[in-house]
Amino acid sequence: MEKSKEMIPFKKFSDIVNKISKKFKIPKNTALRVAQKAQERGINLIKWQQYLSMLGTFANTIPAENDPRIKERVEGYTEEEWGDILFAKELKLRQLTERVSKSDLDQIEKYADRLFAAVKIDVEFTKHFLDRVNDERNKKPINTAELIRLFRLTYKKYGKKIAKMNPDAEAVITDMETDVNMPFVLNLDRNGMLDLVAKTVMRKKDFKTKDQKLRV
After folding, report:
1. How do the domains of the chain map onto residue ranges?
2. How far apart are CA 207 and CA 88, in angstroms?
3. Which tens digits make up the pLDDT trace of 14-48?
4. Strands 194-198 and 121-125
5. What's this model's pTM, rounded to 2 decimal places?
6. What is the largest CA-CA distance in the chain?
7. Is 115 within 8 Å of 74 (Cβ atoms)?
8. Ramachandran assignment for 175, one of left (phi > 0), alpha (psi -120 to 50 degrees), beta (any other)
């Protein structure tokens, strides 16, 4: 990766931010954060078009926190629509060989928290989850778009049902299209709120389990 060796003039920097905004169809304030994050990673913004995959990943995760269309409590079609946008962009821009990072997982957790907040459920990942999501046994790498899709479809189809399950209940969410399976357990935290703890994840067709399967 070619690192920037000199400060970019403000006018040039502003022009690049505007182009990033148009390229990824994101607000300018979000494009500014994308550019700043790229510089922190050592990317030479003068040649930003050479790093579309990485910038696209930044563009996908940052709006989940800042886009005004996304409500703190998810209602109606707004969150679902944005989930579709994230999924489409991620499939197009993220290289399938990229590993899911801890930062990626943190962003997905925030996204899932916003979804499930409407049914008073908090989402958490175990340390093992991060190891397993990048495991070569998945054959085809599991990417962030597939995880976003998994939570979006699960909330839409089973959000209220999961909220009525007992603490310590266990189940497996299975995406019938991507063959991604996510076993989880429900824990009751000290505040009396249900925590959906994603224990692990794997890509496997016809995944066998004795626990309840939630197919999406």
Report:
1. 1-68, 97-215
2. 26
3. 788 888 888 888 887 788 888 878 877 778 888 88
4. parallel
5. 0.58
6. 61
7. yes
8. beta
Structure tokens at 156: 């839409």
Tokens of 120: 């008073």
Token code pair at residue 130: 């991060």
3-state secondary structure the chain: CCCCCCCCCHHHHHHHHHHHHHHHCCCHHHHHHHHHHHHHCCCCHHHHHHHHHHHHHHHHHCHHHHCCCCCCCCCCCHHHHHHHHHHHHHHHHCCCCCCCCHHHHHHHHHHHHHHHHHHCEEEEECHHHHHHHCCHHHCCCCCHHHHHHHHHHHHHHHHHHHHCCCCCCEEEEECCCCCEEEEEEEEECCCCCEEEEECCCEECCCCCCCCEEEEC
pLDDT digits (tens, 9 = 90+) for 145-188: 889 999 999 999 999 999 999 999 999 999 999 999 999 999 98
Q: For residue 146, give both structure tokens.
A: 């597939």
Q: Which residues on adjacent β-strands are paired with residue 3?
A: none
